[in-house]
Amino acid sequence: MKRAMYEDVLNAPENKVAEILDGELFLSPRPAPRHAVASSRLGRVLGPFDEDPGGPGGWWILDEPELHLGEQVVVPDLAGWRRERLPAMPDEAFFSLAPD
To answer: Distance (Å, rounded) from C-alpha 100 to C-alpha 95?
Structure first.
């Protein structure tokens, strides 16, 4: 079997989440509405850790970021980075630094 490449992720259907795990391309449906609601609510709960002036701050909290971790390409529901490790958003459409 041919190892999946990032080009396979880019060519995936728009209605799918494409990920590469151990060289294999996985296509998953976009989250169902209830999943999206739960993820959005969790993001709001974590909001004070991001930029809320009344919260602890110091984090970037993102919905569905694309992560390139070695040869793996994954798209978690939520991910967070301490700003001391990731002081600015990357210019690329993905992150190569693992979230905290």
So the answer is: 12
- The set of residues, in sequence order, having a beta carbon less than 8 Å from that of 17 and lying 6+ positions away, is 27, 28, 29, 30, 64, 75
β-pairing, 67-69 with 72-74? Answer: antiparallel
Residues 99 and 81 sit within 8 Å (Cβ to Cβ):
yes
CB of 49 closer than 8 Å to CB of 62: no
How would you write the pLDDT of the chain (100 residues) with one tens digit per residue? 789 999 999 999 999 999 999 999 999 998 889 988 998 898 888 888 887 666 788 899 998 999 999 999 999 988 999 999 999 999 999 999 999 9
The pTM of this model reads 0.83
Tokens found for residue 3: 């190892």
Please give the structure tokens belonging to residue 90: 């990357």
Q: Which DSSP helix (H) or strand (E) runs through 59?
A: strand 59-63
Q: Which structure tokens are listed for 96?
A: 């190569």
